[in-house]
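Late entry, evening session. Most of the bench is empty. Finally got around to the prediction I had been postponing all week. Sequence below, unchanged from the version circulated by S.P.
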Amino acid sequence: MSTGPTHAMSGLLAWSAVTAIASTHPIGQLSPQSWAVGAVLATGAALLPDLDHPGSTISRTFGALSSGLSAGINTLSSFVYRTTRLKRDSKRDGGHRGLTHTLVFAMFAAVFTAAVIQNSQKWALPVLMFVFAGLAVRGIMNDWCPKQDALLITVVSAGITWAMIAWTAQTDASAAACGIAVGIGCFAHYIGDAITEQGCPILWPIPIMGKTWFPVAPPKIMRMKTGGVVEMAIVGPIVTILSIWLGLAALQGTGALPFLDWVDLLPI
């Protein structure tokens, strides 16, 4: 599930599901504004792990800036892979589907996001919103947007950021919720990659069957080809429909959709 649109929608789906189901937990009792901020962050974060691949479309989201960052992440990921692999690990480059595809990275991204927003919300939240909105837009528009049009992505991302910040101006976003949203988005990416043919080394550096980079994946019969018919015709549409449904259910729980009070979107 490594195509951009499916990854992006899986991040939104994961955020919507967690916030809709966890109604008795603080993460399920956010204000509509905080929920929307989290939705943007989670959707963008679902593309974040692929910044380890300099050749990916996502890595070109903001032109030379994101390309340079991607090259640096790829180099670091390769170094970590080479220095921590065991004999049974494959002797590959390790740049892609390496460090950024582990729970360690997801936790780091979540804690970093929360810490930065907690300490510098006035400037950090707009900046992070812009970056993650850009990743989300690039992921969703990947199939029909010119792949090199960084300017278009920048303009659309800036528009989303401006609208979100203007809407949330009177409400302090929860730093913890923002961090959780980023962690959830990354985890959604890992699940998507895990069900493809290559699997995903989510549990690094825990050694499993003599491998620190063990590719977590279901049985082969349950895996699918990246960008294949199963993903594009079945999984992608289902993820999109579920993300919209659970997103509405979560917003209904915040009180943002009073006109839907007549229907129980989440009857559990």
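Two things to note before I forget:
The CA atoms of residues 33 and 170 lie 9 Å apart.
The helical segments are 4-21, 32-45, 64-84, 103-119, 121-141, 150-167, 175-194, 229-254.
Will write this up properly tomorrow.
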